[in-house]
Amino acid sequence: MRYIYSLVFIALAASVFGQDNKWSLQECIDYAMKNNIAIKTSELQTQISEYSKTQAKLDLLPSLNASGTHGYNWGQTIDPFTNQFATRRVRTNSVGISSQVTLFGGFQKLNQIKKSEYDYKAAKASADQQKNDVALSIANFYVNVLFAQDLLEIAENQLEISQLQKDRIKKLVEVGQLPKSNLLDAESQLALDEATMVQRENDLALAYLSLYQVLQLQPDMKIEVEEPELLEVSSSFLSQNPLEIYKTAVENLPQIKASEFQVKSAEKSLDIAQGAALPSITARTSYGSGYSGNNRVLRSDADPTLAIDTIGIVANSMEEVVAPRIEFQDSDFRTKNFSDQLNDNINYSVSFSLVIPLFNGYGARTAVKQQRLNAQISNYQLQQTKNTLLQDIERAYADAKASLKSYEAAKKSKDAAEEAFKYADIRYTQNLINQVEFSNAKVRLSNALLELSRSKFDFIFKVKVLEFYKGEQISF
């Protein structure tokens, strides 16, 4: 019954993993490069830095602004367009266009351009680092799937051996050459191997689940990893020592480039802060006009009143000296046309301003000190990144050497266990050893095979890590 249950489980697993959709490691990495959320986010951050870089260059251009106002004045005020004293409500309008450009600003804008370029390069390198991290993580889970598949194959082989052994013992028991207890022991071993295979199926399912999660596959997507044709175990990585690998990594790995660009960006931030303490020169020009409701002219159809005013008396004759006076009513005037006023009130201006910072609460000096410290911090962070990289390479190199030794030892152990099991199988069939001794030989062989598989895939992945540090593409 347990054997039937195991076969049913295998069939169900085959429906999950037996898809005609095999992906190589490179295909898995390519999918993640296009769909991973962290990678997409880092690419958007790179675009933001690119926009900032472009804007820093555009900030060198003059500003150009148009303006317009519409308002009313009440009470006693001087009309700005007629220069007359007004006591009633006056409507005013003004329109204009102005431009301003910084002729000298302590080289702040030029340094800002350089800083934004370094920020963009740092963001781009950080995005590349994110891609490398994801690729390395995928390679790790991909190898775990291969390892789980190898363990399942070992379990299937062990189950097949136990099944054949049970069938053979059953025939010998039936003809009376072996006691029935041997058959019961064989059935017990078969049941244990069936349980082991079920566990290996579960391990494979979990390994696939981890790979799906790191790939961020859609729930309805199922893939099967493509097993490489040949996974060689070679000591060729020993041709370079850790220091040589480190020198190559420093030249190629994006996390080092990102830290270097961050140092340069911090240095430009210091230059910008120092520029704030220098004088600045600004040029400004404007063109405008306006309208006033107090700007009134005589109507063409005005009907003035003629009056005579006495302006003096002749001394001898006492005759009055008179003069004509023309009187106008308020209705004889109209507000000057809007378009005429705009043409008449046109004004231009050009100005230059010089600002010399004398005292601002030591703000500029404090900013310089802060940016100088930030530059030092960036240098320390770069050095720390390099130190961490060297330590990681030294550890990876040592791990790879240890894994190679473990693999070589496991290979010898496997060969010895196979030979021992071969003789144990013969002796058990001849009833020269008991079931316990036979099971021990079989367990030793199973453990040797498991250790050989574990050490092989562990070594392969650690060598891939070293190849990654050398700037090589992660692939099988």
From TrEMBL:
Highest taxon of the lineage: Bacteria
Q: Which InterPro entries match?
A: OMP_efflux (IPR003423), TolC-like (IPR051906)
Tell me which UniProt keywords the record has, alphabetically: Cell outer membrane, Membrane, Transmembrane, Transmembrane beta strand, Transport
> In which compartments does the protein localize?
Cell outer membrane
Q: Which Pfam families match?
A: OEP (PF02321)
One cellular-component annotation, GO: efflux pump complex
Q: Which GO terms describe its molecular function?
A: efflux transmembrane transporter activity; porin activity
- Which Gene3D superfamilies does the entry mention? Outer membrane efflux proteins (OEP)
Its main subcellular localisation, reduced to a broad class, is: membrane
Q: Report if keyword Transmembrane is assigned.
A: yes
Task: Locate the transmembrane regions by residue number.
Answer: none
PANTHER family hit by this protein: OUTER MEMBRANE PROTEIN TOLC
Q: Which family is annotated?
A: Belongs to the outer membrane factor (OMF) (TC 1.B.17) family.
Q: What is this protein called?
A: TolC family protein
* Taxonomic lineage: Bacteria, Pseudomonadati, Bacteroidota, Flavobacteriia, Flavobacteriales
